[in-house]
Design a protein that fits this description.
alpha+beta; five-stranded mixed sheet; 4 helices
Length: 176
Amino acid sequence: MCSLEQFKIDLKAVTDGETPFQYELDNQFFAALDDAEIQEGSLHVSGSIRKTTGFYEFQLCISGTVQIPCDRCLEMMAQPIETESHFTAKLKENEDSSEQDDIIMVSENEGVLDISWLIYEAIALAVPIQHVHQPGDCNDAMMRVLTEHSAARSSDADANNKEIDPRWSALKDLKF
């Protein structure tokens, strides 16, 4: 089991200027996260923290592959990931501080920011909405079943289109 402790950054210990960091993510990283939809992958994360007056600017560069199911045949496929992410953190002095949507507020008493879920979200957002194998790489058995059901559905639609209710036919004459 991967320990997520390495992803906890003590903001109070970050020195002025730029501080680089690197992580190698594997299946254990995804297993350690609760409720992660992506469960397998091999990725390299390189990033840096730049401390400025009162703010911490994070830059992440993530590259590698994740294993996700193909939308067409449901077999696992390797999806390449290449993304950059930027976010800002700030230590808040007390509980009455106003929240800002674009800045991650960290309690000054604690001073620790866990970036594991932020890294995961950057990976998940880099996965395309539709992910399918390259043509010819899908599972042949599943593609045969899909083709059979698609043909049956289209033939049912053709049969339904031949018989039109006479009430709807009368509406065709009312075109503008």
